[in-house]
């Protein structure tokens, strides 16, 4: 049981790292600071973008990581 949860925990950790690295930054350098207001004003489909999907996926994987951490703490 402990080995299976540990393997799952490592897998979830790697997936979480990859998802965070796939996300783009809040500003894309100088062009992001200039066009940042226009993006929020014209970004009507913000909930359907890849960044929004990655944000939700990050939340889900982080919760799974937290659950596996707690389970490992109780097992060992």
Question: How would you describe this structure to a colleague?
Answer:
By secondary structure, this protein is mostly helical. It has one domain. Helix content is 79%, strand content 0%. The protein contains three helices and no strands. It has helices at 2-22, 30-42, 50-75. Helix 1 packs antiparallel against helix 3 (50-75). The chain is elongated, with a radius of gyration of 17 Å. The mean pLDDT is 82.
Helix content: over 70%
Based on DSSP secondary structure assignment, what is the total number of beta strands? 0
What is the H/E order? Answer: HHH
Parts with pLDDT < 50 across at least 5 consecutive residues: none
| Major sheet details | none
Question: Gist?
Answer:
It contains 3 helices and no strands.
Write the layout of secondary structure elements.
Blueprint: H1 2-22, H2 30-42, H3 50-75
Quick tags:
3 helices, single chain, elongated, mainly alpha, 76 residues
């Amino acid at each position: 049981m402990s080995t299976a949860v540990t393997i799952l925990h490592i897998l979830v950790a790697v997936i979480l790292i990859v998802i965070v690295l796939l996300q783009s930054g809040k500003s894309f350098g100088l062009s992001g600071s200039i066009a940042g207001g226009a993006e929020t004003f014209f970004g009507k489909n913000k909930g359907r973008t890849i960044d929004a999907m990655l944000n939700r996926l990050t939340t889900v994987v982080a919760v799974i990581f937290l659950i596996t951490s707690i389970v490992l703490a109780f097992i060992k």
